[in-house]
Amino acid sequence: MTVHVAHSMFQAHNPAQLGPTSLPPPPRHGLSSMRVERVARHLVVFMPTPDDLARLVNAARVDLPDLAPLATVQRVLSKNPDSILAITQRHRFDAASPRGEGFVACLMLNADGLASLKAGTFDAADPPDTMLAAQHERPAAIYVWAVYARRRLAGGVGLVFDRLSSPLYQGVDFYARAATPEGADLLMALGFTAGSEASVRLYHFARTPAPEMAPPYDSHRPGLTGVSVAVARSFEDLARVISLRAAVYMAEQACPYEEEFDGNDLSATHLIGYVGDEPAGCLRIRFFADFAKIERLAVRAEYRNTRMAFALVRAGIELARVKGYRRLYGHAQKRLVGFWSRFGFRVFEGAQELVFSDFDYVEMLMEAEPHPEAIGIGVDPYVIIRPEGRWHKAGALDRSRGRAVTRPSVDEQAAR
After folding, report:
1. Residue (of 134, 152, 120) closest to 29 by Cα position
2. Is this entry keyworded Lipid metabolism (predicted)?
3. Residue 10 above 90 pLDDT?
4. Domains plus CATH for the chain?
């Protein structure tokens, strides 16, 4: 799979297609001068449904006969749901029944995958799972696997790249190959440069190295714009959680008070999602012997057009993995099974259906990859005593490292 812009209105002139006395027709738009950001304002990118993905891949195969088989595409998507985004024109987008007109597919490569890509040995037609980063792993590189974008849809590629600027992907370089002159022109217009390895023919887009990244569950800072998440640590934070859940579950879904506030809130970890400085959503996590339960996801109605729900779920999964949990469990409203499946949750064999607060639910389970920096016995003990969700930062008790042992209260008592 390689970059292709099918029958684009931004098509580049190819002199080889002209007769000896022909003059090149005036271009409608030139990729070298196109304003991608202006075109992108009229487009929407989103995760395709399985049926829509199959339709898009089959449609693209007319122009790109060398596309990987649908089963391979689905396998890559199962490894990392961020790998494929559909593009459509904004005026045609229907959130209730989204239907893509084009797509961008990326491979999230780990270090082995990047080394193989640069060496020219990477098999893009059947990428090995061992060379791909999972959804919650930071990749070593992002390989633009395929771009199928007709006419104005080419501007949606920039939107996809913007979506891949979350803390997990920030600073990760893009790589691509071009299958057509139009694809090469689009890459150059987006800021890619041709690589020096002629045999590999890679295009490279170097991104600014990411600053030291806060984990997704501790990304909020006062004054920050956009979507961010923080662990609830104060009574004021807990009041925010209560207000958010009251607005969503009690006001919208008519959930009784004693069922929504069920006695588990003081024994759980809560995440708060912010848009700017405004509390916009929350999530609760409870921890058991060998699994963590993800629950009580709530997003205020006015913020459901943001990525808040996705940010909260991903932050919750990451926090549980850092604490060493690999089995994540939840009760999903049956109408939202598709949403949870995007993160790797599945209705497992023997899963029970249940009803509470007048909604139908089903058990779901996610088997997560082990976190490379999971906290366990044997790690720095100062890390273990840091505030919840702030294990990446030195805490107040870390200052004790540099102080001598004085045992002031014990010595004072002994002196009496």
Report:
1. 152
2. no
3. no
4. 3-205 (3.40.630.30), 216-367 (3.40.630.30)
